[in-house]
Amino acid sequence: MKFQKTLKVLVFDTHPITRKGIRMMLENMTIIANVSEATTDAQFYQHLSTTGFDLILLSVNEPDTFSVGKLSAQLGRTVLLYTEEGAENAIDLMTMGGGACMSKKCIDVELREGITAVLANRRHACTYTRAMADRMITQSIHF
């Protein structure tokens, strides 16, 4: 999918290698982007309050870190990236309207699919996330 306009993208992750990898992936997807980066919650919310973004890649590694109220208007444009520690939080944000939910264990092809889905106003969950959600549902069903 090729985009005609320059997209405003916000990347929030505390790890420089992850942010660099996301930038490289966007370039390889032929997405022309003006990328802003945040490495702390304060920076993330500052960017979120001052700029309208077409795409947000949000690393949800720590439980209970994010304010749903501040994120709610942006969730549909958000790709939630998580490690095992943040999985439940990421799935909760996805159920509240997140655009895509992606484990950091997923391969880059799946991350590209998630980004493309969000930019096309569709929702997406990677294979790992779908399997984990199925397990959570199965464990919560009592007969």
From TrEMBL:
<dbReference type="InterPro" id="IPR011006">
    <property type="entry name" value="CheY-like_superfamily"/>
</dbReference>
<feature type="domain" description="Response regulatory">
    <location>
        <begin position="8"/>
        <end position="119"/>
    </location>
</feature>
<dbReference type="InterPro" id="IPR001789">
    <property type="entry name" value="Sig_transdc_resp-reg_receiver"/>
</dbReference>
<protein>
    <recommendedName>
        <fullName>Response regulatory domain-containing protein</fullName>
    </recommendedName>
</protein>
